[in-house]
Design a protein that fits this description.
Blueprint lengths: L5 H17 L4 H19 L5 H12 L1 H12 L4 H28 L3 H26 L11 H16 L5 H30 L1
Helix pairs in contact: 1-4, 2-3, 2-4, 2-5, 3-7, 5-6, 6-8, 7-8
Protein name: Phosphatidylinositol phosphate synthase
Organism: Sphaerisporangium rufum
Pathway: Lipid metabolism; Phospholipid metabolism; phosphatidylinositol phosphate biosynthesis
Length: 199
């Protein structure tokens, strides 16, 4: 769904990509910096309950996920290694976001929401793994209600508004995300199954 916004965001990031390209900065460096920034924002602010500030910091660094691709195209340095590194570090960033929330829920004594956040983390990893494994087997798996961009938007927006004092929004966001992630995993598994039984 949010893939439709990617061209517009790419246009916005293109001037910054040109500036980085002129300085010879590698897309892989941008990928690594983005992941470190996401992890620092999530693990530095979320466990303290500073949800709005943490979400803002994370969002800024999440944009590096798009900027590295823009830069790679400009430099003509897109590679299999770069794609692998990007996907791998995406999982690290996602883990940091939900780990930060889990730490905060545990610190506040909300074990139920800590469990929901943990489920979101695991379900999101399953969603990504199903696609990666299917494509590794030569199958298509580009389906799903809640892909990574949608999952990030839900958790970051919910956490940011919770940090501004909006009641229940983080709980509602995480419960919805848990349901959507489980549904998406099922969608992808069924999609792969249908390809294999009809092959």
């Amino acid at each position: 769904m949010l893939k439709l916004l990617r061209p517009a965001v790419t246009r916005v990031l293109t001037p910054l990509g040109r500036a980085l390209a002129r300085r010879g900065i590698s897309p892989n460096v941008i990928t690594a910096i983005g992941t470190l920034g996401v992890a620092a924002g999530a693990l530095g602010f979320y466990p303290q309950g500073r949800l709005f500030l943490g979400s803002v910091v994370i969002t800024v660094f999440v944009l590096a996920d798009l900027l590295d691709g823009v830069l790679a195209r400009m430099l003509g340095t897109g590679s299999t290694w770069g794609a692998f590194l990007d996907s791998t570090l995406d999982r690290v960033g996602d883990a940091a976001i939900f780990a930060g929330l889990i730490f905060w829920f545990v610190a506040t004594g909300d074990r139920l929401m800590a469990g929901v956040a943990l489920f979101c983390l695991v379900a999101g990893a399953v969603v990504s793994y199903v696609k990666a494994r299917a494509e590794g087997l030569g199958l298509s798996c580009d389906v799903g209600l809640a892909e990574r961009p949608e999952r990030l938007v839900v958790v970051l927006v919910a956490a940011a508004f919770a940090g501004l004092g909006v009641p229940y929004i983080l709980a509602v966001g995480l419960w919805l995300l848990a349901a959507a992630s489980a549904f998406t995993a099922g969608q992808r598994i069924l999609h792969v199954y249908r390809q294999t039984v009809t092959a």
